[in-house]
User: What shape does this take?
Amino acid sequence: MRRVVIIIIAVIDAELAENVRKIRRFPNLACMKLAGYYKGKGHEVILKTDYENLQSYSKVYISKVFTKTHVPDKILLQPNVSYGGTGFFYDNSPTLPDEVEHCFPDYELYSGYVNEQLQKGVKPHVLKCFTDYSIGFLTRGCFRRCDFCVNKKYSRCVTHSPISEFYDMNRKKIMLLDDNILAHPDWMAYFEGLRGIDKPFCFKQGVDLRLTTPYFAQIINTAKYDGNLIFAFDDIADAELIERKLAMFREHSNKEVKMYLFCAYDRNGRYDTDFWLADIESIFKRLAIIGKYRIKPYLMRYEKYLESLFSGIYKNLATYCNAGGIFNVASFSEFCENQRAKSKNKDKPCSAWRYYADFIQQYPYFEAQYFNLRYFKRNAGNGRE
Assistant: This one.
C-alpha cells in the first residue's frame, strides 16, 4: 500500500501578519486557493499570522497585495518560503499554477481568525467578507491598461473561470473581483447567469461606466445587486462621455451608485503648483457632474498628494466626499466651517479650517467658483436637473 506523507503548509496573509491587532476586513484569495489545493492533497494547512519559526513548516507561502505592506527581507530568503502577489511584484506578479488558480478556495482558512475577532467583540458585519461571500473571478483583464493601474498583465478581458469554481451555495452572497467585466464580449451571459443563481452579487472593483448600455442599466435595476454599484471617473477629459453615460443610466435605473474619483496623479509626471491646482479644480468639476445624477463620490488619492503643498486640502476633500452623507447636504465651505465649529479648542482653529483658510487666502477664486456650491440634488424622475 502506498503511504501518503502528510506535510504541514503555512500560509501567510502579509497584510494580516503586518498588524494582527488591526482588523482585517477582506481575505486574501490566493491564500485561500493555496489552502484549498493542499488540503485537497490531504495535507495540513494553517493560516499563520507572524513570521516566527517558519523553519518548522514543510512549505511557507506568503501573499501580499499592497506594496507598502512590510515583510522582513530575511524571511524571503528562507529556503522553504515562496512569495507572490502585486505587493511584491506590482504589475509583473507571476500567476499561480493552473492547478492552484482553478482550485476551489478554502473558505475555512480564516475561521480561527474570525472566531477570535468575534470573541473580542468585533461586530459580525465587519467580518462579512470572510463569512458571507463566495469570492472569485469570472473574467480577468482590461484593455485600457491605465498607467496608474496595477492591472497591466492583460491587453483584453478574457474568460477566467466558471462560477462553480468558487461558488459555495451555503454562503449568502457572491463577490466578483473582475477587472472589467463589461469589456468581455459575453458579459450579458455572465449577468444572466448571476441573476439565475438568485443570490445578491456585486463587483468589488466596480464596472466601467464608459461601456454601460441601456440593457446593463435595466439588468442592474432589477437584479439582486449587493450594495452600491461602483463606477469610476478618473479623468476630467472624459467628462462629456461620463455625463452622457450617466444620463443614459439614470433613464433606466434608480440604483444607488458610488463613483470613485481618482486624484493627485499627474500623467505627465510634473507635480508642480499648476498641476496641483488643476487637479483640485478637476475634483470639483467632477463633483458637479456626478451630483446632478444623485451619485455619491469616493475620493481615491494617489500617494503623491502627501508631497503637495495642498495636502491638507486633499485631506479635507477626502473627508468631505467619503465620510457618510456630508457631500449630500453641505458645500465644501460649510463642511470646513462645521469642522471649525466642532473643534474643542476654540482659541486655536482646527487643522481642517487652517487648510481651508490658508488655501482661499492664496487662491480666492476657488471659493467663488467651487467651494460654496452644493452638488447633490435629490430630484424625482431620472435624476437630471
Remarks:
- Residues 1-123 form one domain.
- Residues 331 and 372 are 5 Å apart (CA to CA).
- The longest helix spans residues 273-291.
